[in-house]
C-alpha cells in the first residue's frame, strides 16, 4: 500500500518533451532569424501549453491519489493497532479465569485420586490438560501481540546455553516419551555463554523442540546440538519426522500458517510457534533457518551472537 502513484514515471518524460520543444524553438529563431515564424511559433506555443496542461492535471491527480493512499495507510495502521490491542486485552482477560480452572482441576484431581472411581480422575485430568493447552495458546497470543506492537522487552543476563537446553529437554521429556522418541543431546563447545534474555531463549528452544516432537511419528530420533563457530553460538534441533516441502518452508514463519491448514488437520496448533520464535531470534540479533526433506526429517538451525569473555 505504500507504493506511490505509477503515473509519476511519465512526469520526467513530459517535462523533457516540453524542454525539447522550447529548445528547438529557440534554436530555430537563433539560427535562422530572417525567417518569419508566425504560424510555427503559434503552433509550438500551443503544443507547449497543451503539454503543460496535461502535466499539471497529472500532478494534481498524483497528489490526490497519494493523499488517498496516505489516508488508507493511516486507517490500516490504526485498524492493525486496534486488532493487536484487542488480541492482547482478550488474551489477558481469558488467562485469569483459566488459571483458576486449572488450579481447581488440579485440586480435584488430588482429591479424586484417593477414591475408587478412576473415570472421574480421567475426566478431571482431561480438563486440566486441555486448560493447559488453552493457556499455552493464550500466552502465545499475548507474546505475538507484544511483538506486533513493538512492546517486547528483553531482560538480559549472562548464562550458559547448554544449561537452558538440558532444562528444556528435561521438561519436554514426558511428551517425547509418550511418542517413544529418543532425544540425544550433543554439546560440543562447553561452556557456551550468551548475553540474552534467558526466558526468551528457552522459549525459542521449547518451540522448535515441541515441533520436532509433534511432527515426528512415534519412535523417532531427535538430536539437539550446541556449538560455537567464530563469534556465534549455534543451537540445532534435528528430527527424522515428516519434513517440510520447499513451498511450505516459505510459509512456516508466517503467523497462523500451518503446512496442513485443512479443517480436518492432523496436528493441533495455531501456527504461531515459529512466527514468535523467528521474532525472538531476530530481537537477539540472531538468525533461524531450516533444512528439510519431506518424509526424511528437518534440521532447524538457530545462530546467536556469543558472549566470549564471560
Ligand atoms: N520439525 C518440523 N517438522 C515438520 N514440519 C514442521 C516442523 N516444525 C514446523 N513445521 C511446520 O511448520 C508449521 C508452523 O509451525 P509453528 O510451530 O509455527 O505452528 P504449529 O506447530 O502448527 O502451531 P503452534 O506452534 O502455534 O502450536 C507447522 O504447522 C508445520 O507444518
Ligand atoms: Mg509449533
From TrEMBL:
Ranges for domain Histidine kinase: 89-308
Keyword Nucleotide-binding attributed: yes
Keywords tagged on the record: ATP-binding, Cell membrane, Coiled coil, Kinase, Membrane, Nucleotide-binding, Phosphoprotein, Transferase, Transmembrane, Transmembrane helix, Two-component regulatory system
Stretches assigned to coiled coil: 59-89
EC main group: transferase
Cellular component annotations (GO), alphabetically ordered: plasma membrane
Enzyme nomenclature, EC number: 2.7.13.3
Cellular compartments annotated: Cell membrane
Known catalytic reactions: ATP + protein L-histidine = ADP + protein N-phospho-L-histidine
Residues annotated as transmembrane: 7-29, 41-59
PROSITE patterns on file: HIS_KIN (PS50109)
Gene3D superfamilies xref list: 1.10.287.130, Histidine kinase-like ATPase, C-terminal domain
GO MF annotations, alphabetized: ATP binding; phosphorelay sensor kinase activity
Protein name: histidine kinase
Organism: Aneurinibacillus danicus
Classification lineage: Bacteria, Bacillati, Bacillota, Bacilli, Bacillales
Amino acid at each position: 500500500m505504500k507504493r506511490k502513484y505509477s503515473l509519476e514515471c511519465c512526469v520526467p518524460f513530459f517535462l523533457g518533451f516540453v524542454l525539447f520543444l522550447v529548445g528547438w524553438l529557440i534554436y530555430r529563431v537563433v539560427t535562422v532569424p530572417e525567417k518569419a515564424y508566425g504560424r510555427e511559433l503559434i503552433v509550438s506555443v500551443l503544443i507547449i501549453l497543451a503539454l503543460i496542461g496535461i502535466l499539471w492535471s497529472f500532478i494534481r491527480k498524483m497528489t490526490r491519489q497519494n493523499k488517498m493512499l496516505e489516508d488508507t495507510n493511516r486507517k490500516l495502521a490504526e485498524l492493525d493497532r486496534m486488532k493487536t490491542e484487542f488480541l492482547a486485552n482478550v488474551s489477558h482477560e481469558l488467562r485469569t479465569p483459566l488459571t483458576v480452572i486449572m488450579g481447581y482441576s488440579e485440586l480435584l484431581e488430588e482429591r479424586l485420586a484417593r477414591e475408587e472411581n478412576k473415570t472421574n480422575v480421567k475426566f478431571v485430568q482431561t480438563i486440566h490438560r486441555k486448560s493447559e493447552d488453552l493457556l499455552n495458546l493464550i500466552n502465545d497470543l499475548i507474546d505475538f501481540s507484544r511483538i506486533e506492537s513493538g512492546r517486547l522487552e528483553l531482560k538480559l543476563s549472562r548464562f550458559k546455553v547448554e544449561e537452558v537446553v538440558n532444562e528444556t529437554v528435561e521438561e519436554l521429556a514426558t511428551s517425547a516419551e509418550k511418542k517413544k522418541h529418543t532425544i540425544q543431546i550433543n554439546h560440543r563447545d562447553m561452556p557456551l555463554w550468551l548475553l540474552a534474555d534467558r526466558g526468551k531463549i528457552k522459549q525459542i528452544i521449547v518451540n522448535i523442540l515441541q515441533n520436532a516432537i509433534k511432527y515426528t511419528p512415534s519412535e523417532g530420533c531427535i538430536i539437539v546440538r550446541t556449538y560455537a563457530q567464530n563469534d556465534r553460538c549455534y543451537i540445532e534441533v534435528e528430527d527424522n519426522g515428516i519434513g517440510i516441502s520447499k513451498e511450505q518452508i516459505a510459509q512456516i514463519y508466517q503467523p497462523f500458517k500451518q503446512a496442513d491448514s485443512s479443517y480436518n488437520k492432523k496436528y493441533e496448533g495455531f501456527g504461531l510457534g515459529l512466527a514468535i520464535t523467528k521474532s525472538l531470534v531476530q530481537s537477539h540479533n540472531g538468525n533461524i533457518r531450516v533444512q528439510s526433506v519431506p518424509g526424511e526429517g528437518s534440521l532447524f538451525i538457530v545462530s546467536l551472537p556469543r558472549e566470549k569473555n564471560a
